[in-house]
Amino acid sequence: IVIHPHTITNYIFKKTFCQEVIFNFLNWTFCFFYYILFMISILNMLWSMHMKIAIIDDDQNDREYLTTYIKNYGQNHPFPFSIDTFSSGELFFKNSIYTEYSIIFVDIYMEGIDGVEIAHTIHSSNKDCLIIFFTSSQDDMWRAIKTHACFDYLLKTSVTEQNINDVLDSALKRLHKYDGTLDFIVGKKNFSLNFSQLQYLFSKDKYTVFTFSDNKQLQCRITFSSIAEQLHEKEPFLSCNRGIILNMNYVCQANNEVFIMQDGKHLPLRRKDCNELLKKYQDYQFKKLNEEVI
Predict the structure, then answer these.
(1) How far is it, in rounded angstroms, from Cα 211 to Cα 216?
(2) Which residues lie closer than 8 Å to 140 by C-beta, 6 or more apart?
(3) Which of 112, 207, 219, 254 is the most buried (most CB within 10 A)?
(4) Alpha-carbon distance 31 to 34, whole Å?
């Protein structure tokens, strides 16, 4: 059998060309998926900055002009936000995940569930949500304040767009204090958890378990030490014992042995550091109280 040199050259050329096509295809495929992952991480970051605002009022005119004021504010103070409106407390709880809201304007006088009851329910599971009572009378001001959930109290009869701008300025300053996310990767999945929504976390075997403000949990196969590095010396987080970090905003009671959290969980204190830990917690609470008074 005689094989012409030209035939061999053609064969080698075709093989090399095919290899190059495959290589280029794989290279472009890798770049494409890398770009998709990058865009997903960017979207996650932007979504973590997104602020949800709710308006609960049985008067349509009040809902509409309050929505207009907030949108005008957003045009002059650009930040990602969305507004949801509800005509009653029942519709709010039925059609929303109320733990996701950062700011809620609520009327006190409504049929069915009134504004104070709504505030009680929201505050029990989302203590970082800022509730602004927006009502037509001062009669229930002290009842609203006693909920410990009242960020501000606005009278419909005298409210102006400037009043709304001022209260939103104050609200953003308060919320930005707790801004930040805990970012990490497990396998091929990116996680971005809002600091303000973390109630506590603890180490469990090779996993880290996160408990959120709504008392739900997330278990991830990631070392506790890598998470602890991001939260080290960062208020309002406190490492109360080996493998346990809590958010001091969700502590309901504290003594020489345990911190009792919002969900009822008892987190033990390190015995040798119990006095120091309690002092840090008390100092933080006094600091927060002073800021609220100011």
Answers:
(1) 6
(2) 108, 109, 116
(3) 254
(4) 5
Cα separations in angstroms, 273 against 140, 201, 257, 258: 44, 19, 11, 12
Q: What's the one-letter identity of residue 86? A: F
CA distance 153 to 167: 9
Q: Residues 167, 77: contact at Cβ < 8 Å?
A: no
pLDDT tens profile 79-126: 678 899 999 999 998 887 767 788 999 998 888 888 889 988 888 877
What distance in Å separates the CA atoms of residue 192 and residue 179, rounded to the nearest whole number?
A: 12
- Phi first, then psi: what are they for 68, rounded to 5°? -65, -45
Taking alpha carbons only, the member of 176, 167, 155 closest to residue 69 is: 167
What is the 8-class DSSP label of residue 12? H
pTM exceeds cut of 0.70: no
pLDDT tens digits for range 246-260: 999 999 999 999 999
